Amino acid sequence: MKLKKLILKNLAKLKWIKKIIKLYLIYLINDKKVNIEIDIKNV
């Protein structure tokens, strides 16, 4: 029973880590888009 709880806790952590990575990637992509738009305006 204890082991099952530990596994579930770790799975929950993994889900969170995946969510954070996904959000971070989206943020990076959007950040690059913004930089590209600024570069185009500067040219």
List keywords for this structure.
43 residues, mainly alpha, 1 helix, rod-shaped
Low-pLDDT sequence parts: none
CA-CA gap between termini = 63 Å
Structural classification? mainly alpha
Task: Calculate Rg over CA atoms.
Answer: 19 Å
Count of helical stretches: 1
Helix content: over 70%
Quickly count the domains.
1
Sheet having the most strands: none
Name the helix and strand elements from N-terminus to C-terminus, one letter apiece.
H
Shape: rod-shaped
Number of strands: 0
Strand content: under 5%
- pLDDT average, as an integer? 86
What does it look like?
- By secondary structure, the protein is mostly helical.
- Helices cover 95% and strands 0% of the residues.
- The chain has one helix at 2-42.
- The longest helix has 41 residues, at 2-42.
- The mean pLDDT is 86.
Report a brief summary of the structure.
This protein has one helix and no strands. The mean pLDDT is 86.
How is the secondary structure organized here?
Elements: H1 2-42
